[in-house]
Design goal:
Blueprint lengths: L3 E4 L2 E3 L11 E4 L2 E3 L12 E3 L2 E3 L12 E8 L12 E10 L17 E3 L17 E3 L56
Parallel strand pairs: 1-3, 2-4, 3-5, 4-6, 5-7, 6-7, 7-8, 8-9, 9-10
Length: 190
């Protein structure tokens, strides 16, 4: 069985809940205003692709490869990225809704999250070294046994991270958000 290969194509306004996505490799493709909500998008390959204004909420990405993929203004709520293909995994997120998603145990250093909503996201045992959280809401986001070395959190907010359970050497925080490192101690800081 030959695998389908798509290169330099643009997919616009496709509702994949009604039109089945074709299994295969998508290389340097752009997806605009597409709906993947709840779709089984497993065993696909996205290489150097861009997703703009797409809905990926609750999409199943089991064994799906994301290699140098950019998400812009996308809804990615409840996505279990921890089930995707970890080989050469690399993506970035800008102006995205990622609430309730999971990056459990992934190695995703140098990942950029810019202007994203990351409420109740699971980063347990995630390797995020040298990543950027620029102007992101991290309300109730879980960091446990995570490598957060050299991660820049300085412009993000609603952060709660236990320094005893995570590696934080060289991580950047602002004076305003550093209190989230002390929350477990139930201190009153005025």
């Amino acid at each position: 069985m030959s695998e389908n290969y798509f290169q330099d194509e643009e997919f616009s306004k496709i509702d994949f809940t009604k039109t089945k996505i074709i299994k295969g490799e998508y290389d340097n493709c752009t997806f605009k205003h597409c709906n993947f909500e709840g779709v089984h998008a497993s065993n696909l390959q996205f290489v150097e692709c861009e997703f703009i204004d797409c809905n990926f909420s609750n999409t199943v990405v089991k064994h799906t490869a994301f290699k140098e993929v950019n998400f812009k203004n996308c809804k990615l709520m409840g996505v279990k990225f921890n089930e995707c293909d970890a080989f050469l995994l690399q993506f970035s997120f800008q102006d995205c809704q990622l609430n309730f998603s999971s990056f459990y145990q992934l190695k995703i250093p140098n990942t950029n999250f810019v202007n994203c909503n990351l409420e109740e996201v699971d980063f347990t045992e995630t390797y995020l070294s040298s990543s950027l959280f620029d102007n992101c809401s991290l309300k109730n986001t879980r960091f446990e046994n995570s490598n957060l070395e050299k991660v820049n959190f300085s412009s993000s907010y609603l952060i709660e991270i236990n320094p005893e359970e995570n590696r934080l050497k060289g991580a950047k925080f602002s004076k305003e958000n550093v209190f989230g490192l002390l929350s477990k101690y139930k201190l009153i800081i005025e």
